[in-house]
Amino acid sequence: MRRHAAQLTTPPVRLLLRAGWLLPAMLCMPLPALAADPAGMLTVFVGLPILVAAVVVLGVLALFRRHAWVRGLGTLVGACVLLIGVYVACVDTWRFWPDRGAADAPTQVAIVIGYGLLWLCLVVLTSAVWRGTSRVAGDGIRAPTRYP
């Protein structure tokens, strides 16, 4: 049986798909260069983008939270990202708080406060998705279905 040259080599895409399980494993490993990195590197380049993406995803899921599968998916995503946010805060964000007299203190304070506010927004969205119904719909006054 004769093979073409294209069939003899594995395409890079197929090779990446086979090694796709390595990415989550690498993300769970502690970063060995974290001690040498400047403070805030993990917060700015990993923590903030993950929190922003999760807020957008949970915001969209909150629109359809009456469905059971949306509540389950939203709660799972929200809880996982909240844990990642706590991990990043414990490992890196607290070190990012500026010292007295630092030249870039306002920027660092804004990033730390923004990180905290994004995390709180994620808590609110996760609880809203988990709860399933909006507070207004559950506690509001319902209009009568029939008129006398």
Distance separating the two termini: 84 Å
Q: Structural class of the secondary elements?
A: mainly alpha
Q: Helix amount, in percent?
A: 55-70%
Topology, number of strands: 0
The best one-word shape is: elongated
Percent strand: under 5%
* Low-confidence runs: none
Write the element-wise H/E pattern from the N-terminal end onward: HHHHHHH
Mean pLDDT: 77
* Helix count from the secondary structure assignment: 7
CA-based gyration radius: 23 Å
Largest sheet: none
Structure notes:
- The chain is mostly helical and 148 residues long.
- Helices cover 66% and strands 0% of the residues.
- The protein has helices at residues 5-8, 12-18, 22-28, 41-63, 68-91, 105-131, 135-139.
- Helix 4 (41-63) runs parallel beside helix 6 (105-131) and helix 5 packs antiparallel against helix 6 (105-131).
- The protein is elongated and about 65 Å long.
- It starts with a helix and ends in a 9-residue tail after the last helix.
Keywords:
66% helix, 148 residues
Write the topology of this structure.
Layout: H1 5-8, H2 12-18, H3 22-28, H4 41-63, H5 68-91, H6 105-131, H7 135-139
Helix pairs in contact: 4-5, 4-6, 5-6
Gist of the model:
The chain is built from seven helices and no strands.
